[in-house]
Input
Amino acid sequence: MLQKAKFTEKKFLITMIFVTSLFMFWGVAISLGDVLNRHFQAVLNVSKAQSGLVQFSIFGAYFIMGIPAGLFMKRFGYKNGVLLGLSLFALGAFLFVPAANTQSFSFFRIALFILGCGLSTLETVAHPFVASLGDQRTSDQRINFAQSFNALGTIVGPAIGSLFIFGGSEGVGLDKIKTLYIIIGTVILLVALSFTFVKVPETTDPHAVVPDTNDPEALNVDFAPSKKLYQHRHFVWAAIAQLFNVAAQGGTWAFFINYGHEKMGFTDAVAAGYMTIFMFMMLAGRFIGTLLMRFIAPNKLLAAFALGNIVMCLIVAQSMGWVSYIALIMINFFFSIMFPTIFSLGLKHLGKQTQQASSFISMGVVGGAIFPLIMGSVANHDVAKAYYLPIICYTVIFLFGAYFYKVKHD
Output
């Protein structure tokens, strides 16, 4: 009788703790971008469609940096990959100072792009790393657990944004942004310095290591090693699903504050406060989803949550006051498990091609660069109606979770 798969092993605990902390940092950065989206509309006089370029700059960096980050990781290892990501993260944050001094939206976008390159590098490294820290049958649980700290970061981000950016008078908004990102850059540099002293396992391909077990499902064994990466159907569909998933996330988050301001009559500060609750729902969804995966297959839970968000988007688009606003908040609950679960299912049984696959799936984040621009064009006329568009994305995710997640063994 096979032994029940453990969540992880004792020897991996310290590494697991440090790597999961990285998930929180990019959660803070991503969610702060959504606060900046609304603030730039007010301070720099850009339209909703133009402010979508904030997300375009961040998520576009994921597309550009995905493959280089994967190649760097493969050549120099996980530790150096993390250090590169943290360095770019800090550099992008410090560039907010000259951007604020010049009051240039274009300069801010350059800073956000460099910061996004750092986030892309961290994500490319962290996902396969966490997946490798134990039995492959529990890799979905580990990635969802680590992503819970990402959700914690997305709660902290809007809270910080509400305090620093929307607190006080509007006239000093860019000065406050400058101060905030100096603090962020300094913290990230200190984290990078501390990471140089952390003992990380010296391996560039942990998925090729075969543990002492007779169950191939416990390993990341490639059942069809003769196949090229693009010939693995479950990987291709995971990359597509991730593209649409982050597209839906980018659009939903980008105009959350606009929805509260225009449809609920909230001030920007109050709407940003509700965004903290919005992000808390993702944290709750991650923990609940990780628990449910002990009893429900990850792909089935993914499909069910995708259906849940189709219903939520339909309600949000009707603009029915608090009913629609609560549905908008609930979108993040159902969204919670999607990114890590798609990532984990897409990396199943790819053997030595796992790291390359991680790079391509990370590139799917470019969906978050494009979709807010499309939603912004609709939101210029009616922000509620813009929430019809993510239904397309959740339909694709449902199809992946219900049908196209399966690993072909031939």
